[in-house]
Design brief:
The protein has seven helices and no strands. It is an all-alpha fold. The N and C termini lie far apart (about 40 Å).
Length: about 140
């Protein structure tokens, strides 16, 4: 019986399941980061006061918001998902350091979880990124 189960789970099927799981996690994180990035453009919002309290300039809040929105959208597109995940990961490293300096350890833990998820998404979609994916498909058709 166990040999039948092992025969049914091929590496190709397992890879497909991992990609579907990465896309589903990416869709959730895309929704979250687009929302979180968009509110950073609100001059009267929470993030304006937070960035001021941390001593960061206004342009940094806008840049973080833009990276979160763009990276969130990129998470939905497989051939650029790795780039979006890495871009948002860079922002999350900054958030992690900021929250650690602020002694907000629960936030540090959650940011760590998001960071691990983003890095996993980048890893899973890396072989499918542009332009390599395009070149790979051209080689198969030739």
């Amino acid at each position: 019986m166990s040999s039948t189960v092992h025969a049914a789970v091929t590496p190709r099927k397992f890879k497909r399941v991992r990609l579907v799981a990465a896309w589903c996690l990416g869709a959730y994180l895309a929704w979250m980061y687009v929302q979180m990035g968009w509110v950073k453009f609100d001059a009267g919002g929470f993030w304006t006061a937070a960035f001021e309290q941390w001593g960061y300039p206004v342009w940094l809040r806008w840049m973080v918001g833009a990276i979160e929105v763009a990276g969130g959208v990129m998470l939905l597109v497989p051939w650029v998902a790795s780039y979006g995940a890495l871009g948002v990961s860079a922002v999350m490293v900054g958030a992690w350091v900021t929250r650690l300096r602020d002694a907000r350890f629960v936030d540090v833990a959650w940011i760590s979880v998001y960071l691990i998820g983003l890095l996993w998404i980048a890893f899973e979609w890396w072989p499918y990124r542009q332009p390599r994916h395009k070149l790979h498909s051209e080689r198969r058709s030739a």
